[in-house]
Structure formats: structure tokens, C-alpha cells
Design goal:
Helices cover 38% and strands 17% of the residues. By secondary structure, the protein is of the alpha/beta class. The protein has one domain.
């Protein structure tokens, strides 16, 4: 079994229309978007309506299309169906989110993020760094910071 990375970077969803004109290759089929996203980022935050609407076969495909170290973080929802039984699928309760999620759009300060990563490293628990808006520039900066810090 491989260990999970300490800092995981991603966005809220992988279907951002603006990404079609630069991030994703022009000829990439829609059903390959998640696989490509997974080559650049190692986590995705899924809003409740998205993951709750996913069928068992869709979940099986999503898990198959991503590497073992990739994680799905799920927004809690009302009367949510059970999440898939996988250690790569995490339900983000408000308390868990406070301790494990950094929202880039709300706090894009990389110095503050570096401090948070250092604090998080002391706990040994993962830190998920997400962009709600899918701001690729911020996500790439966070990925670079993660690499420079050795995480």
C-alpha cells in the first residue's frame, strides 16, 4: 500500500468550461477529462448535487479513471446517499473541512498557505488545497509550492 501525500491540490469539479480552451487538449473526449485532470492534480472537491447524482457505475468509472493517490472530497448534502466504500472518497463534514481544507480563492496568500502546510505536516494529516472557481493559475502555484516544500 502506498502512503497518501500530505498536500493534495485540486478544484471544485473538473468540468470548468474555461478549461476547454487551454488546460484540456482540444481533441480530448469528454469522458477522458477526469483522467487528464488527474495527471495534473491529485484531488477534486465534488459539490453534493454532483456526487449524489452519480450512479454506482459512474463512481466505479471515476475510481478506475484516477490513480490510487487521487482523492474525491465530497460536500455534505441533505439526506445524502451513502458514499462509495473507498479510502479515496472522503466526506467533508464542516469540522473535518476546517482541519483539512484550504480554499485558494478565499486565501490566495502563498506565504500563509506555506505556514498552514507546515502546521499540517506536524499533524501528519492531509491538507486539501482547492479552488472553488477552478483558477488554474492559483492551483498551479499551490502545486509548485507543494513541490518546493517537498510534499
Amino acid at each position: 500500500m502506498t502512503s497518501s501525500p500530505l498536500v493534495l491540490v485540486g478544484a471544485a469539479g473538473w468540468l470548468h468550461p474555461a478549461w476547454r480552451n487551454g488546460f484540456y487538449p482540444d481533441d480530448l473526449p469528454d469522458d477522458w477529462l477526469l483522467s487528464y485532470y488527474n495527471t495534473q492534480f491529485n484531488a477534486v472537491y465534488l459539490p453534493a448535487p454532483v456526487w449524489q447524482a452519480a450512479t454506482d457505475s459512474t463512481w466505479a468509472q471515476w475510481l478506475h479513471d484516477t490513480l490510487d493517490g487521487f482523492h474525491f472530497v465530497l460536500e455534505p448534502g441533505d439526506a445524502a446517499p451513502p458514499k462509495p466504500a473507498s479510502p479515496r472518497v472522503l466526506l467533508a463534514s464542516p469540522a473535518w473541512e476546517r482541519g483539512h481544507v484550504w480554499w485558494l480563492d478565499e486565501t490566495p496568500d502563498l506565504r500563509a498557505l506555506a505556514q498552514r502546510i507546515t502546521q499540517q505536516a506536524a499533524t501528519g494529516e492531509p491538507l486539501f488545497v482547492f479552488s472553488r472557481s477552478g483558477n488554474l493559475a492559483l492551483m498551479e502555484q499551490a502545486n509548485t509550492l507543494r513541490q518546493v516544500m517537498g510534499y
